[in-house]
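Morning!

This is the sequence you dropped in the shared folder:
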Amino acid sequence: MISVAELDVMKAGSYLINASRGSVVDIPALIDARRSGKIAGFALDVYPNEPAKNGPFFENDLNNWALALRGLTNIIITPHIGGSTEEAQSMIGVEVADSLLKCTAHDKRGPFLLRYQ
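The structure's back. Tokens below.
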């Protein structure tokens, strides 16, 4: 986890980007580092508690530091929606269809689907 100790050894004026997992960065520590000027800015698209549906993403009822995060400058905060793009949904549909075809394909021994049962 990137927390106070890790932020302290970063070069003053650094930028941090987290697009991996929400629990990788201690966001309250990151907020403090940004407020102090240690971190020049940061970008996040993952959070410890991700929104489960459309709606207000950066409110304190989801993460108790959300309003403090919204009050900072020189940051980029976006909801993690990588799997929700048109391209990703299309690719998922193709992958599911391919898997179904493989499961129901036939060879000399009969349908694959029946052999897996």
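Headline: The longest strand covers residues 39-44.

More detail when I'm at my desk.
O.
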